[in-house]
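Dear colleagues,

For the upcoming journal club I promised to circulate an example of a predicted protein-ligand complex. I picked one with adenosine-5'-diphosphate because it came up in last month's discussion. The inputs are reproduced below in full, followed by the predicted structure.
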Amino acid sequence: METPAKIEGTAAPGRNNRAFEFLRDIPKQLLIAGKWAPAQAGGTFHTINPATEEVLTTVAEGDARDVDAAVKAAREAFENGPWSHITPHQRAKYLLKIAELVQKHADELAHVITLDNGKPISEARNEVARTAEVFIYYAGWTTKICGETNPSDPSLFNYTLREPLGVCGQIIPWNGPLSMVAWKVAPALACGNTVVLKPAEQTPLPALAFGKLTLEAGLPAGVVNIITGFGPTAGAAIARHRDIDKVAFTGSTSVGREILQAAASNLKRVSLELGGKSPNIIFDDANLELAVAGSAMGIFRNQGQVCCAGSRIFIQQKIYDEFAERLTQVASGITLGDPLQPGTTMGPLVSDEQYERVLGYLNVGQQEGACVRAGGERGPQSRGYFVAPTVFADVKSDMRIAREEIFGPVASLIPFRDETDAVLQANDTIYGLAAAVWTRNVNRALALARRLRAGTVWINCYGILDPISPFGGYKQSGFGRELGKDSIELYTQPKSVFIKFQK
Ligand code: ADP
């Protein structure tokens, strides 16, 4: 590694010193009521650079007591603080200011993401840009959250208000450690809520950097509180807390189920964005070059650690061999290595646990009789959680590698006969987050867009996400939609007001 992974130490030639200084200056504590504080129990934990397996730094390990303090701060800010009576225009200004600061520190934030998460720096830069866009988009919404008037008895006037829910608990994963902050925090604030955010224990630093920027933006104390810590302690305390009005979660389906149960304690509102095993369907009339490139991006971006990754690639029989050959070539051409190097196109997986899990599936696939066309093994690096981009051919829909979410750079290639066969196999899953279709036949594309049971369908493209459009799951991929105006509905509730005319 040319770039030392440790953030301690002095400036050194050959590394981005501004980024390292920024990283060093991020408070490694909990953000509660506008102040940084250690965990009440004094606990801390390490965050690891997955490219080197070295400790990057140590952050506070919050638990239920800290969550409680954060909820009190968020409640106070919601009920009595300046946040409770500012105008929508003022809220917009805060969101725009945050977006501006994210853009100003784009380079440093991208480095923080790459060091903590392992994704290539080019992808981290893209994540930062998308983060700013989400804040800008929701800044626009603050002034457009409207109620309605409804026709009633002529002696009555009825109107509705759309009001914020209150204190929102938000639990996010490690695969988009900054963009997930934006997806959760931006709409919640746009609607006038306050927030207790828990980043994933694998990647606490981008969220802490964000916390620092909220203070720089002058956001009133208690509006955004951040508790770093572990799922079963800090996360579970958020899910069951009786003074939290809503919990929003992105992560695994099994944890989503636990959160839903815990949220029943006070019937808090719940939105869940969970796992996926998304089908990516290539018909023999598709533009093969674009389909191969899009499919590779769909499964290999972010090392395949994407809930909507196109992990089941269904290929019409006539072009199966050619597609498999071309995808194999793309996979073999991926540059696996130091994610801080600009030429790197794939970095390490996020953690030891994730690494072992994905390697386990590489064994399972081979035992099940799938044929390894590319990868199938760990990367050649002596350190770091590197897994070679893998293409499995001759996969059958009932194999575990075609049914279970691997969350790694592993493509399963499955043949299909015709449209009906493609739809049957594609929908044969407990998940329903996303799907894609590659074809030049517009009638077929439109028909499949309807028949595929997924929250997002991409036609002749893969993985496009945009704050203008809702994202979320069918079936066990969760419920509730984030982004778009749907997020405004997630973070508000209508109130109906009747006025009786008096003589
Ligand atoms: P992954 O398996 O990809 O790490 P998880 O669903 O385990 O995904 O984690 C996503 C987020 O949920 C993380 O912030 C994690 O700390 C949190 N989490 C894990 N377990 C729980 C739990 N029992 N209750 C609440 N949050 C949890």
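Two points we might discuss: Residues 171-173, 198, 200-201, 230-232, 235-236, 239, 251-252, 255, 258-259 surround adenosine-5'-diphosphate (CB under 6 Å). The mean pLDDT is 96.

See you all on Thursday,
B. R.
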